[in-house]
UniProtKB/TrEMBL annotation:
Residues 20-60 form the RING-type domain. Keywords: Metal-binding, Zinc, Zinc-finger. GO terms for molecular function: ubiquitin protein ligase activity; zinc ion binding. The gene is LOC106168915. It comes from the Eukaryota. Residues 94-135 form the B box-type domain. The keyword ATP-binding does not apply. PROSITE patterns: ZF_BBOX (PS50119), ZF_RING_1 (PS00518), ZF_RING_2 (PS50089). It comes from Lingula anatina (Brachiopod). This is Tripartite motif-containing protein 12A. The keyword Zinc applies. GO terms for cellular component: nucleoplasm.
Amino acid sequence: MATNQLLNIKQKFTEEFLKCEVCFDENISTRRLPCKHNFCLSCLGKIADGKDKFSCPKCRATVIVPEGGVDQFPEDVPTRKMLDFAKSLHVAGDKSFFCEHHPNKPLDLYCKRDNTLICGTCVVKQHKGHDAETIEDAALEKRKYFQKMAYLQDEALHDIQNEISGLQKTRKYMETGANRVVTNVIKMAENIKMSVERRCDMLCDKIQKIQSVELYKLEQEQKNLREREDEVKTTKQRYLSLLKKPTAVEMMFSANSVEHLKTSFRDVPTCHEDVRMARIKWSKMDIDSQVKEMFGQLVIEKKDLQFL
């Protein structure tokens, strides 16, 4: 009896306060116009129909549509609160708790065969012969089932959280490992650079020492040649002085003094063999082979490559 009275109150309340005066449906989303009249958003959209202004369906006042459309009209907060209150009445008085075949009969039984709620009349008519039980017993079984499923979800959640934790640890390890690899690469590059610089200095020192030795030999050979050049010039002058003798007797008398000077161009010594080979050596020096010989000693330790 009390339930029916509650349903009647809800119905009258809805018809009086919560129905749109255009479509007469329950106001789901209410907007208030400047003239203080309320209409559902759907009806306002149809009335405005994309125009800049329209007339209020109730008082015919001119209403300017705000920029952005009828959605921009303010929501009617009091109507929304009354709508929420009406919805709260569903818990105690909604018709869904009464049999649709026998409206005055409450749904107090559960048909296991059809998996549905039924009333006491249904169990002897539409569901005659079906296995039925009270809602309390059915709810108890469902509660046990839900508890079991919740426990299984806990297990699944635990597994998922373990996987997430494992992935986080893996990510941390990867980030740390990557940083370690970068550090090792930089360190190895620095070691290689230092080793290359040392070997480069060694190669340059070797070339400079070879240069110093060869230059010394060249200077000595030049000195010897200069001395020989002076001797040849002196000998030449003595021969020329004999040619200037006025008589044959004087020339023949003096000839014995230069008899031992039989120097010819064949007697002039050529460059020392080492100096001549040095010219060839420096003109055709195989720098590549020198570099390979020197830098071939550059060995990267296997342990430095383990992180790769």
